[in-house]
Design goal:
145 residues, alpha+beta, 7 strands, 30% strand
């Protein structure tokens, strides 16, 4: 009965290289796969995982101990900050009154009240008051000027 050991290395260039141990104990190239997720998709997925983990740790910490409650709240806040950072990079907002493009910060991205389909009430510096702004998805491969 032999056991086969596989070692996978994640490379910076979005590929995973796997090595297997052969009969003589040397590692040979087994498989190379391309990862189809870019850093923004990983950022979104990681933020959702952190938020869920923070809620679960917080709820468990309520019953088990004070330390896990603090860890859960910290993980939840970290997930919210990561999600807000993703929203600022993935969306821009267009003012419906003056058609100015508005890039929001993390606080406005998370806490601006929604007012309908893909719209939020955001402060427009040109109109100088909070207006209804339509969200527009930015292609994350380029920066929109």
């Amino acid at each position: 009965l032999t056991t086969k050991i596989t070692i996978c290395i994640i490379v910076i260039t979005n590929s995973i290289i796997c090595f297997k141990k052969d009969f003589f104990g040397k590692y040979i190239l087994f498989k190379e796969m391309v990862v189809l997720m870019n850093k923004y998709q990983i950022m979104f997925s990681g933020s959702i995982i952190l938020i869920v983990l923070g809620v679960l740790l917080g709820v468990y910490g309520l019953f088990a101990g004070n330390f896990l409650l603090c860890v859960g709240v910290g993980v939840l806040v970290g997930g919210l900050i990561l999600l807000g950072n993703w929203i600022t990079k993935a969306y821009t907002y267009i003012c419906k009154d003056c058609y100015m493009r508005i890039d929001v910060g993390i606080g406005e991205a998370l806490f601006a009240p929604p007012v309908g389909n893909d719209c939020r009430r955001i402060y427009c510096p040109k109109c100088r008051h909070k207006t209804i702004c339509k969200a527009r998805r930015i292609s994350l491969r380029r920066y929109v000027f």
